[in-house]
C-alpha cells in the first residue's frame, strides 16, 4: 500500500510539472508565437538528429557500430537545429496561418483541400530548400546543393506521402491553429531524423545540364564524318 501511495504521489508531482510547463508554453505561444514555435522546433529537430545518430552508431540504422564509429557529429545536429529555429518554426507558423485564411470553408472538403495544398504545393519546394540549406552549410556551392536536392526530392516525397497525409488529417481536423506547429514538430521528431539521414546520404553523380542537353550525333552525320576522314 505504501508503495502504491508513493507511486501515486510521484505521478501527481510529475503531472504538476507537466501542467506548469503546458501553462508556460501556452502563455508564450500566445504572446510570442513565432519565437516560441521557432525555439521549440529548433530544440526538437536538434534532439531528433542527435538520437538518429545514436541509432546509427548502435548499428540499428547502419553498420557504423561494426566499424567502431560511435562519434556524434554535433555540427550536423546544430545544422538540423538551426533549420528548425531559423526556417521550419517561423515559416510553419506563417504557412498554417495563411492556409487557414486561404481555405475558409470547413468540413471534410476543407480538411482535404488543406492536406492537398500542404502535400502538393508546399512540401516539394520546402524539401528542396531543406536539402539545399543542408548542403550549403556542409560547404557545397548553392548550385551543387540545389542539384543534389533535386536528385533527392522524389525519393523523399514518396516516403513523405506514406506518412504526412495521415498526420495532416489530424492537423487540420483536430488540432487548434495555435498548436499546429507544436503538433507537427512532435510528428517531425521521427521524420526529421529520416530527413537528416537523407541529407547526409550521398547520391550517384548525375550528368550536368550540358551533358543532358547535348543531342546525340545522328547516324547520317556520323557517316559523313567517317567518309570525310577517309578521303585522302
Brief rundown of the structure:
By secondary structure, the protein is mostly helical. The protein contains nine helices and no strands. The protein is 78% helix and 0% strand.
Q: Unreliable stretches, pLDDT < 50, 5 or more residues? A: 62-68, 205-214, 216-232
Average pLDDT, all residues: 82
Question: Helices and strands, in N-to-C order?
Answer: HHHHHHHHH
Instruction: Report the portion of residues in β strands.
Output: under 5%
Main sheet, how many strands, which sense, barrel? Answer: none
Instruction: Work out the helix count.
Output: 9
How far do the termini sit from each other?
108 Å
Any idea how many domains?
A: 2
Task: Briefly note the structural class of the backbone.
Answer: mainly alpha
What is the strand tally? Answer: 0
Shape: globular
Q: Cα-atom Rg, whole angstroms?
A: 25 Å
Helical amount among residues, as a percent range?
A: over 70%
Structure description:
- It is a multi-pass membrane protein.
- Keywords: Membrane, Transmembrane, Transmembrane helix.
- One of its GO terms (cellular component) is cytoplasm.
- There is one protein chain.
- By secondary structure, the chain is mostly helical.
- The protein has two domains: 1-31; 38-198, no CATH class.
- The chain has helices spanning 2-31, 33-57, 74-102, 107-137, 142-160, 164-173, 180-199, 209-213, 219-230.
- It starts with a helix and ends with a helix.
